[in-house]
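Appendix B, example 12.
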Amino acid sequence: MHTTLRILVTGADGFVGRALCPVLRGQGYTVREAVRAETGENRVAVGEIDASTDWSAALVGIDVVVHLAGRAYVLREQGRALDVFRRVNLEGTESLARQAAAQGVRRLVFASSVNVNGEETFGRGFTEDDLPNPEDPCGISKWEAEQTLAEVSAETGLEATILRLPLMHGPGVKGDLLRLLEAVHQERTFPLGAVSNRRSLLGLDNLCAALDLCVAHPKTGTYLLADDEAVSSPDLVRVLAEAMGRRVRMFAVPVPLMELAAKVLKKQSEFRRLTGSLEVDAARIRVELGWKPLKGLRQGLEEMARWYLTMRA
């Protein structure tokens, strides 16, 4: 019976892990949480994640590993960024997979990134059949980790399911979306009135539902995930502002002029995220695993905005 599954969740104290572990326990699974330093009931400290990490204590008796831990943020030291990402995302993942296979773990579910596919779409969403085209250190290291997992799977029989994730939203969010929430709350002015793009996001609850499916579903594979709708950058700002009761100040700057300014300021990557499209076609996981989002995009964004207001209170 699936309720007897024993699951190890890495990065259990992170944005996704904190939400996922209660969901899995609610299904009757036994969940062990792997964290960097903190220990406690059902938790084990594994330290820094790289090729030398000792996973032996964490893996004892485990059937399935959900590997969420990884490096997702680009470092300031661009010259060495790829090496640092590889140490965690590639070498750390390979070490975990090989140790898991040696201890008899049946399956590993790996949180990858849509950036494996690329940084921008034109007219249609990325699919699993598109050739990988990673450009940034995170995407490159995640793609290399996916290939390594395929090798480990072929050599050992370890089942591997890979989920390529776009920008995630939800209570507890960090990074770019947290900074956007702060900017909207402060009623800053946004030069996005001329932007007409489409970007796919993924709600935290929707991701947890997919991970819950993947730990026990008989079929494995590589899947792209996203909420039902895509959203433009200006509409994203408007939805958050409305949810927080803030006033939106937006004016139109021609996109070519924004691009020129981004080049001068060496902010090209930020410019692409604000003005470019990155859409995801999540049809395959719907058909093969029966996944569907639990919440719509607007509902998820509104819940994130309310969390932010509560956090500030």
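The chain has a mean pLDDT of 93. The longest helix spans residues 78-102.
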